[in-house]
Design a protein that fits this description.
- By secondary structure, the chain is of the alpha+beta class.
- The protein has a single domain, classed as Beta-grasp domain (Ubiquitin-like (UB roll), Roll).
- The protein contains 2 helices and 5 strands, in the order ββααβββ.
- The chain has helices spanning about 35-45, 50; strands spanning about 10, 25-30, 65, 70, 85-90.
- It has a 5-stranded mixed sheet, covered by helices on one side.
- The longest helix is centred in the middle third of the chain and has 11 residues, at about 35-45.
- The protein is globular and about 40 Å long.
Length: about 100
């Protein structure tokens, strides 16, 4: 694979998923898009994959990803371009109880 320019970004990990990142609240990853950054995160921390992706490789519907304050569902989803130094946040949906 030829060398390409990579973008270093930070992904903020929610508390319930930190046990899969060795307790880290944030992880530095690389990628030109949100999807590439998330794939790098999963490559570095494989135990996260079933919590973020379905068996067919789609981002789980209850996992919300933000670039800064912008929900990627209202941008280009996992194809959303990211710039160096961007901050991504993984925000699991919270369901109400009884």
């Amino acid at each position: 694979m030829p060398a390409t320019s990579t973008t270093s970004v930070t992904i903020h990990i929610p508390t319930p998923l930190r046990s899969f990142t060795g307790g880290s609240a944030s992880v530095e990853v690389t990628g030109q898009t949100v999807g590439e950054a998330l794939k790098d995160l999963v490559r570095r921390h494989p135990a996260l994959e079933p919590h973020l992706y379905t068996e067919d490789g789609r981002l789980r519907s209850f996992v919300n990803i933000y670039v800064g304050d912008e929900d990627i569902r209202y941008l280009d989803r996992d194809a959303t371009a990211i710039t160096p130094g961007a901050e991504l946040s993984i925000v699991p949906s919270i369901a109400g109880g009884r």
